[in-house]
Structure formats: C-alpha cells, structure tokens
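Lab notebook, bench 4. The sequencing result for the construct came back, and we need a structural model before the next group meeting so we can plan mutations. Quick request posted to the team channel:

Model the 3D structure of this chain.
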Amino acid sequence: MKQSISNTSAFGWSFFENVAITFINFIIGVILARLLMPEDFGIIGVTAVFLAILPIFSDGGFGSALIQKKDCTEKDFNSVFYFNILISIALYVLVVSSSEYIQSFFEIEELSSVLNILSINIIIVSFGSVQSVVITKNLNFKLLSKISVSSQIISGTLAISLAYLGYGVWSLVFKTLINSILTVSLLFLFNSWKPKLIFSVTALRKLFSFGSNLLMSTLLNRAFDNLYFFIIGKYYSAEKLGFYTRAEMLKNLPSQNLTSVIQRVSFPLLSNIQDNDVSLKENYRKLIRLSVFISSFVLFFLFATSKSLVPVLFGVKWLPIIPMVQLFCFSAFLYPVHALNLNILNVKGRSDLYFRVEIIKKILMIPGVLVAIYIGIEELLVYLIFYSIGCYFINASFGGKLINYPVKDQILDIVPSVIFNLCISFMVFFIGYLSFPAIALLPLQLVLGMAILIGAAETIKPYSYVKIKELVSSKILKSNS
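Done. Here's the predicted structure in token form:
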C-alpha cells in the first residue's frame, strides 16, 4: 500500500468519520439540551476533570510510540495491551475510593455516584486502545469510521430515550458507557489482531523511551485543558459550568473533530516520509493551508450565526452561552494548526521538544486561571484568544525549524484564508441584525452566507478552495465511472 499524502483515502475516511460523528453528536446534543438542564451537563463537566486525565496514565504514551515505531512486533502490541488493562483497573479503584471526597470538595449532589459508575469507562476503553493503534498503523480508517458512527448512533439513541424518561444526568453517563462498550466490542469483532499471552518489560521500556515524554506532554495538556472545568465547578455554580460546558461542546464540534482528523491521519502518513525533509515540508504545507481554510470558515461562520442558532437549537434557557460561543470561535480556529506543528515534533521523534513546548504553554495558562477565579468566565475566554495566538507562535517556531518552514512562511500561507473567511463571516453576522425571529433568521443567514462564500471564492479563487473543489470533483467523477 502506497502511504503518501497524495493518497487521500485515509484522510477521506477519517474526515468522513469525524463529519458523520459531528453531525450525529450535534443532533443528539440538541435533543439532550432541550430535555436536560444545564446542571446535568455541569456535573458531567466536573467528572471530565478526572476521567479525561486518568486514562492517559493507562496508555502511558505507548499508543503514539507504537504508531511511531516502524517495526512493531507481537511482543510490543501485547505488552502494551496488558499494561493498559492493569493500570486502568488501579485507576478505577483510585477514583471510587476518592469519590466521596471529590463530592465534598465541589459540593455537588450525585457527583460521587456519577463518578463511581462513569469511571468504569476507564477499564472499558483500555481493552480497545491497542486495537485502535493497529488499525491506525494500517491506515484502515474505513473500519474505524464504521465502528465509531455505529456506536455513536446506538448510544445517542439510548441517551435520548433515558433523558425523555426523566433519568437526567444518568442519560449522559450511560451514553458514554454504551458507546465505549460497543466500540471495543466491534474493534475485537472486525479487527484481525487479537491479544496473545505475551508480556515483556523490556519491550515496554524501549517504547517508553519515546512514549514517556508524550505521556507527560499529554498529561499536562489534558490536565490544563480541563483545569477551567475544575475552577468553574469550584468557584461558580453547576449551572454556570453547564453553560460553559455546552458552549465548549458547540465549539468543539467543528474544531476538535477537524483537529482529530489532522492528528490521527497526518502522524502515521508523515511518519512514513520523516526522512525526506523536502517531501515532508511540501505535504505539511498543503495540510496547513487546507486545515486553516476549513477551520476558519466553519468557526467564523459559527460566530456569525450563534445569536440565531442557539435559541433555535437549544431553546431560550441556553441564551447565556451565546457570548461564550462567539469568543470560543476566535480561540479555536487555530487548533488544527497547533496539532500539525506538534505532530511534526513527533514525526521527527522529538518527543523531548514536544514536552518542552507543552511546559512553556502551560506556564502561559496561569494568568487565565487567575482571570477565571477573580474576574469572570467571559474575561477568561478573551484571554484564551490571545493564549491561542501565542501558542501558535511557540508551536510553529519549534516545529517549523525541523523542516525549514519558519513562522513567517507559515503566516504568509494561512493569513489569506483567515482574512477571506473573516470577511465572509462579518457579512453573515450583520445579516443577523435584521428584525426577523430567530427561526427565520437562521436559514436566511445560512443560505446567504453560502451564496456569498461561493460567489467570492469563485471570483478570488483562494488556493485551498480550489484544492477542495478539485478533490470533491475527482471523487464525484470516480464514483460515477
């Protein structure tokens, strides 16, 4: 199998998976937001502080190490498989034994019970981690797509049913558990790799030499990503945290999913050309330009339509999230570029630099913590815009040096897309000032926005728009032939 950027199959299937899951989660999220209260999402937001961080310890950075290593053996795969399970069981016991203390600290009812049940997910997920790595190394994103989409649909349908029956926060709990159970079961059913009774401490040590820095980097990243949930959950009400959680989830639908595609596909693909700096830079540059064009368009468009989008989708009880969503959009459009720059460090085997970069960026988050505690949530979101821009310069300076793609050249490549989509979004934003009800204003903004985008793009012909159009056209011709 020829593994190159020109082969768009892997990217296409991964992109399909994320688009499909984004759409599914969007529909499910809209229905659940109407059936549940902000406090329910707030409780889940607090659990995320712990349950998003602890699985990192069970992985130990070994997943990325397996993907990066070219000649993995059965000993490598099986050793990591059993290590993940053992550590996840220990972490589960830790959470359960600490849940009462955690509930007392946050002063939120039901938090202990929710943590005790939801933490089972740590063990469930550990059974599928190596399975996912094997499929990723083989670039079989078609299989991953089918599994993820099927699991999301079934678990989402169950969650909606439970919410309608009045189960409140428990509908969100069981959505997570059922999704993980289905995903792991399908991975074992359809993936050819199966665990064997092999375990080697030596194999783990060799992988850990690369994975240890990634472990610390990922741990720092995940801890600080969830730090604001911790701060808001402690110093504000569960309702406020629910608003923040819902605003972030709406922002994450486009930004996090696109970033996930970029990270998951670019790492194994670029790893295969890691010794050819000319080809690496060329393909990396294409990915940067395409990802910025897509992410800036989607997130700026979300900013422009949020005033009409939120009441139409979620109802008036969620109106307080509008300014949060708008501010989130301007900090999130660079996320895919952050991921690409960091992936270059991993592709080149420089997990030590990756860790150093994360340390620098986390120090810059400290002022944000103080802003959240002493000033307010919206002021925190303003700070995050400047923080995201600062992180871009840090990531780009380290990653760019390794492939002779300096920050200045990157900026020249991405600024045209940002300016183009910013102009389009402000036109759509001002349409929102028309004296129409939200239910009529939203489709008007969507239709006119797309018309303005296509008209402007066909006139100016931005590089990324032309490339996307060529890719879509080739796919249509291929399917019709």
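The CA atoms of residues 23 and 195 lie 34 Å apart.
Will bring this to the meeting.
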